[in-house]
Amino acid sequence: MTNNEIADYFSLLSKLMDIHGEDAFRAKSYSIAAYHIENLPTQASEMDDTTLFGMRGIGQSTGQKIREILQTGKLQQLEEWVAKTPHGVLEMMQIKGLGPKKIALLWKEHQIETVGELEYACQENRLSSIKGFGEKTQNNILEAIQFLNKSKGFHLWAEVYSTASSLVENLRKTHPRHRFDITGDLRSHCETVSQISLLTDLPGETLFQNITKIPNVRIETINEQRSLVRIPNQPLIQVFFTKPSNYYQQLFLTSGSEVFHQAFSEAYTIPDDAISEEAIFQTNQLSFIPPPLRESATVLQRAKTLVPFQLIQPNDIRGIIHSHSTWSDGAASIADMARAAIDKGFEYLVLSDHSQAAYYARGLKPEQIVAQHHEIDVLNNSLAPFKIFKSIEVDILNDGNLDYDDTVLNSLDLVIASVHSNLRMTLEKAMSRILRALENPFTNILGHPTGRLLLSREGYPIDHKELIRACARHNVVLEINAHPRRLDLDWRWVEYALEQGVLLSINPDAHAISGFDDVYFGVMAAQKGGLTKEHNLSSFTLSEFETFLKEQRTKRVSSLS
User: Fold this and answer.
1) What's the Cα-to-Cα distance from 383 to each of 10, 336, 361, 387, 392, rounded to whole Å?
2) What is the per-residue pLDDT across 52-91, written as a single tens digit (0 to 9) for each?
3) Sign of the CA dihedral running 460, 461, 466, 468
4) Residue 187 clears pLDDT 90, i.e. is over it
């Protein structure tokens, strides 16, 4: 279990105590504990008690609760609060913008205790008259409910993939003579998935002998080739069964979109006894199409050229671009972030703390930037040839201006411009705001271009084609934010960006050392868009990256003169 998963227990406990009107100080203490757990430098499961209990913000009491979660998968204190809370109230906690105190008010004073009742109340305009809500809040809640309903039953790729990988690994160990593979949307790297799909040549009755021992498990047999496994608090598992001789045929047929398979079946054949997926493509005189690219019919035209698809790989990332330290809202010092990057084999680190408008994230004042740059200079002298670059994730203000004057911006090696405030914009407002930021000669990278949070918040509306063409005109790099809840720029626009000559950059937006690992999820999403390492900025070597920055500065000087 990861630190983030453990922290969720404490965060939920804090919110439930708030909803039930428990002592505010006690409730807050669990919220603080969640923050410290999320930002532990190492996974709690890998620490001994002495180390864990001695970590900042942990202590004996919190440490013992962490051990309870790791050993039992439960926190008894949380279980007791959950038992006291109606299921509908628990569901209401998923609604963006609806905090514990508002939920308590709706439940206890207005007898609203399900999402459906709340949606009806919004539609009937009943929330607007409740103190602390108003018409704007009511509309926001209604939109959030509608988004939640569309997202129900889906999971982040990153969350489900780790579960599926562990499951397949255990099955292979238990049944070493049989084959097991992840397939379906997971294998295709879809950013959100509704289920885990597995393929095996093991007979179903043998597979289910052990699974039926799991408490409350339900198995639904659809037909000889497919069954559904429902385990409480786990994603739905879909299992495809096949004969050993047809294994790779079925692996191919269960990977990719309907559009892709329809086009393939109309023009090509699938041999029943293929010895590999590669053999299926070779038989049809096509280059092998990796599973993430099996979305459209047009990819088949590219495969006819027999030119191999060269997708970016995790080990192609040479530097960490976009990271935060304790100077703003990060969990680790610059020195610790840099040393961790060195340990992981990276050549450079772009330190991009928040700008002053992001007061909630302790954004840096101009004088703090000067002090931070001094610290970076000292570290660079001791860490060479590794290099830390001076950057800022600067807020794009409401009028499209950047959050510092030209003097401050000119002191930076790299500027990542992002929208963090006033996200509820019309298309016209959003485009006007972002386009003005792209025109600023100091903007090097546009961060998380739509501001979306997968399964939580839709991004603000943008005209992707116009935005990408503007990036091409102004030589601005488009970020693929690798956080598994962002994956923004969406992979569907990678191909168009490449056609327009726009450089992309897979960046982890790391707020802790563990955030470096999010690069993997960004690479998986970028593969689906067809990105190659040559068109990814964070794949540049240190020397290539320095050359890129020199060219950017030259163009900046030229545009300002």
Assistant:
1) 38, 12, 28, 7, 21
2) 999 989 999 999 999 999 999 999 999 999 999 999 999 9
3) positive
4) yes
**Tokens describing residue 427:** 């298309």
Mean pLDDT of 469-474: 97
- How many whole angstroms separate alpha carbon 244 and alpha carbon 273? 9
DSSP annotation string for 118-155: HHHHHHTT-STTSTTTHHHHHHHHHHHHHHHHHHTT-E
Instruction: Reply yes or no on whether the pLDDT at 29 is more than 90.
Output: yes
How high is the mean pLDDT of the chain? 94
In one-letter notation, the amino acid at residue 322 is H
How far is Cα 393 from Cα 418, in angstroms, rounded to an integer? 7
* For the chain, percent of residues with pLDDT exceeding 70: 100
**Among the listed ranges 103-107, 123-127, 248-252, 498-502, which one has the minimum average pLDDT value?**
123-127
Give me the sheet containing 348-354, strands edge to edge.
319-323, 348-354, 387-395, 414-418, 445-446, 477-481, 504-507
**All residues at 6 or more sequence positions from 502 whose CB lies less than 8 Å from its CB, including other chains:** 468, 471, 472, 476, 477, 478
Q: How far apart are CA 284 and CA 304, in angstroms?
A: 9
What count of residues does the chain have? 561
The torsion region of residue 114 among left (phi > 0), alpha (psi -120 to 50) and beta comes to: beta
Matching residue, tokens 């979660």: 69
Residues 292, 317: contact at Cβ < 8 Å? no
Question: Which one has a higher pLDDT value, 57 or 479?
Answer: 479
pLDDT tens profile 330-370: 889 999 999 999 999 999 999 999 999 998 888 999 999 99
Residue with tokens 């005209």: 463
Q: What is the DSSP letter of 503?
A: -
Tell me the two tokens of residue 205. 């009755």
Cβ contacts of 216 within 8 Å, gap of 6 or more = 231, 232
- What is the H or E stretch that residue 558 is in? helix 542-560
As a whole number of angstroms, the distance between CA 222 and CA 538 comes to 46
How far the first Cα of the chain sits from its last, in Å, is 55
Pick the closest to residue 240 from 286, 291, 316, 187 (CA basis).
187
